[in-house]
Amino acid sequence: AGISPVIAPIGMGCKGQEDESVVYNINADVAAGRIAGELKAARVLFLTDIAGVLDKEMTLLKSLSCDDIDDLIGDETITGGMIPKVTYATDAVKLGVQGAFITDGRVPHALLNEILAGGENGLGSGEGGT
After folding, report:
1. Strand stretches in 1-130, DSSP E
2. How far apart are CA 121 and CA 4, in angstroms?
3. Residue 91 in contact with residue 33, Cβ under 8 Å?
4. What burial class does residue 50 get, using C-beta atoms within 10 Å of its C-beta: 0-12 exposed, 13-18 middle, 19+ buried?
5. Pair 89, 102: CB distance under 8 Å
6. Helix H segments across 40-75?
7. 3-state SS class at 95
8. Which of 59, 58, 55 is nearest to 73 (CA)?
9. Closest of 75, 77, 81, 21 to residue 46, by C-alpha
10. I want to staple 92 with a disulfide (CB 3.0 to 4.6 A). Which of 3, 84, 97, 99 is the partner?
11. Angle, CA 29 vertex, CA 67 and CA 81 arms, to 5°
12. pTM of the predicted model, to two decimals?
């Protein structure tokens, strides 16, 4: 309660193995989604360099269900690099996270806007992403 972990997802090879001295850069979205899910976090936030999840007319979709995401991937509304991001967000929710936000990291104070907005329900602002 009241803890906001910030994690740098870096891994290393296994001791005694050929890759022992190799440092791996692990996908931050994978790490964030899984850790949030395992912790049963209240919320998980993913930053991106676009407005959030967009429809085919490039309009921000302010709220989506897991089923909506599956449908939008199926009809190719969600494509490219957004697919893994929404997949890890969905996985986190299925693991017990109460809400996942995909937020435009270009917006000043984007994280604060989402964390503090939405009142007691924690629904986020809806203005800085999906």
Report:
1. 10-12, 23-25, 43-48, 99-104
2. 17
3. yes
4. middle
5. yes
6. 66-74
7. coil
8. 55
9. 81
10. 97
11. 70
12. 0.78
Asked if residue 63 lies in contact with residue 33, where contact means CB atoms within 8 angstroms, the answer is no
- Judging by DSSP bridges, how do beta strands 99-104 and 23-25 pair with one another? unpaired
Tokens coding 81: 């690099």
- What's the full length of the chain, in residues? 130
pLDDT tens, N- to C-terminus, the chain (130 residues): 567 777 778 888 989 999 989 998 888 899 999 999 999 998 898 989 998 999 999 999 988 999 999 999 999 999 999 999 999 999 999 999 998 999 888 988 888 877 777 545 555 555 555 5
| Rounded Cα gap, residues 67 and 64, in angstroms | 8
What single-letter amino acid sits at 4?
Answer: S
Is 13 within 8 Å of 21 (Cβ atoms)?
A: yes
Q: Return the residue matching tokens 């017990």.
A: 96
Do 113 and 53 form a contact (C-beta atoms < 8 A)? Answer: no
From 74, 73, 77, select the one nearest 89 (Cα to Cα). 73
